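Example record used in the benchmark description.
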Amino acid sequence: MKFLYKVVDKNKVIRGKIEAENKEKVIEYLKLKNLIIVEIEPQKRPLSQLSQSVFSKVSFTDIVDLTRQLAIMLNAGLTIMDCLDIIKKQVSKPALLKIIHQIDEDVRAGNSLSSALTKYRHLFSNLYISLIKSGEASGKLDQILLRLADTLEKQREFRGKIKGALIYPIIVIVAMLTVMFIMITFVIPQLLNLYKDFNIVLPITTQILILVSSFFQKFWLFVLGITFVVFVLIKNYLKTKQGKKFFDANILKLPAVGKVVKMAALVDTTRTFAILIGSGVSILDALDIVIETSSNAVYQEAFAKIYKKIEKGQSLGKALDEEEIFPPILVQMATVGEQTGHLDETLMRISKYFEMESELAVKTMTTLIEPAILLFLGLGVGFLVVSVITPIYQLTSSFK
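Model output (structure tokens):
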């Protein structure tokens, strides 16, 4: 971070610029130079730099591509330092290039790749770092990176399918609410003012529309403000442990949507578990990582209970069977995997099964959402049309 400073040196004012971690570091540096500090403030970045920093953030896709590149080059016989040198020449995104430079420096200084990645836990998950550490210990880093790259690409593909399925309904809903707000607040009042000059009994739908429209016309700024405040409060509540658990537990109960969330959670957890077990990680360590990487609080809690049971000597299949949220097929496959000694293979097979189920669930959800939106839109438009047209019909009838 860059700071602008103004100091006095021998009755002379000096202005300058310095880069430091924080303001305290700048003060410490200037005092060592025996300078009298007048002013220190962070340098404001121009709009072009701000926009560049926003658009140059490292994305999940960047991590997936980086993992695939490392896997291919390591399997070709290159060293990790050679791989990083080549990647540095190919990467064009400043934020990612800076991270790769730092990782390269740490590796050349004698640190392991896994320890270098721990500085960027916001980009590399505990699963990612644990697998890299396991690969370094076993000497099979190239194979583990290939498996990790496959897993990340499947996650990206699945996320893309979910986003693709939801983007149309979200756009339609947002557009519909925006149009309704504009109509009720600014357009409908102009039409309804025509009825005030006529001595007719307005239909109940028109009276409701007049009340709602009048309220929105007078207090639309207040409504927007309240909506924003409620949105922020809900968002902050969902960030808490209690709020996240409440949301995750109830979303699983929703028709269509609940099954998608459930299948997505099962795909992630079983695939993660399978990769960790297959890479030589113990069941308890694997469960610990699954608990941390699971995005749903309900499944996190269930796996935490399973961890304690296995720690006491219970089998994985038996522990899974005692938790109601896990389907019988997962319990059976885990039991078979433990008995045959191929737990990683059976878990990978069941993850593929859940993946197919999740794709079907997504298709079912989109099939149900689209007509539901159209029905809701039709009811809304129908209500507006009836409320506005019915009085006009009554007026024309009375003139006859």
